């Protein structure tokens, strides 16, 4: 009984860490959505409206960032958009890693090193997800989802 409790505790902590780092990747849309919802809530809007506006604005920010990254061809603009998305994710990843490292380690230097490693990992994952989402959407549009195979073959024969 004690062993299963320990195993489930380790599993629970592992799942919470995984969830924390997956949510850290979405730091910018979450921040914008939370700020919009809090602004409405503080100005007298109802809780349902504040939550709805927060969710919609978070989805809108995420979609706009992906759309701009996918449609922009300038490397400088794409880098700025990627930095705008990956920067807050790296910041959130740093603080999440630092909090977790301080649970198990007492040396401040090793906690900082692990926090920097976590920040770079989360920032890299945020950039990779942004690139992967835009690649997937451009692959779907270039393959012509919805077209029949016959019309594709007819276009290649011309």
Labels describing this entry:
158 residues; mainly alpha
Description:
This protein is mainly alpha-helical and 158 residues long. It has one domain. Helices cover 89% and strands 0% of the residues. The protein contains six helices and no strands. The longest helix has 36 residues, at 108-143.
Question: Can you summarize this structure?
Answer:
The protein is mainly alpha-helical and 158 residues long. It has helices at 2-25, 27-42, 47-71, 75-104, 108-143, 149-157.
Mean pLDDT over all positions: 80
- What radius of gyration results from the CA coordinates? 21 Å
Give the overall form.
globular
Total individual domains? 1
Which sequence of SSEs, written as H and E, runs from N to C?
Answer: HHHHHH
Range of strand content:
under 5%
Question: Portion of residues in helices?
Answer: over 70%
Secondary structural class: mainly alpha
The total of helices stands at: 6
Main beta sheet: none
User: What is the terminal-to-terminal distance?
Assistant: 71 Å
Poorly predicted regions are 146-151
E-strand count: 0
């Amino acid at each position: 009984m004690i062993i299963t409790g320990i195993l489930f505790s380790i599993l629970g902590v592992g799942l919470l860490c995984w969830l924390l780092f997956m949510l850290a990747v979405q730091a910018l849309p979450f921040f914008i959505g939370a700020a919009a919802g809090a602004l409405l809530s503080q100005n007298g809007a109802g809780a349902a409206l504040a939550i709805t506006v927060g969710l919609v604005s978070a989805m809108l920010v995420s979609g706009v960032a992906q759309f701009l990254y996918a449609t922009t061809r300038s490397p400088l603009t794409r880098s700025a958009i990627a930095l705008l998305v990956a920067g807050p994710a790296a910041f959130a990843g740093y603080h999440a890693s630092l909090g977790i490292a301080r649970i198990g380690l007492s040396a401040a230097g090793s906690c900082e090193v692990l926090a920097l490693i976590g920040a770079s990992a989360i920032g890299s994952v945020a950039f990779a997800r942004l690139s992967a989402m835009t690649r997937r959407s451009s692959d779907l549009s270039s393959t012509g989802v919805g077209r029949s195979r016959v019309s594709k073959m007819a276009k290649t024969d011309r």
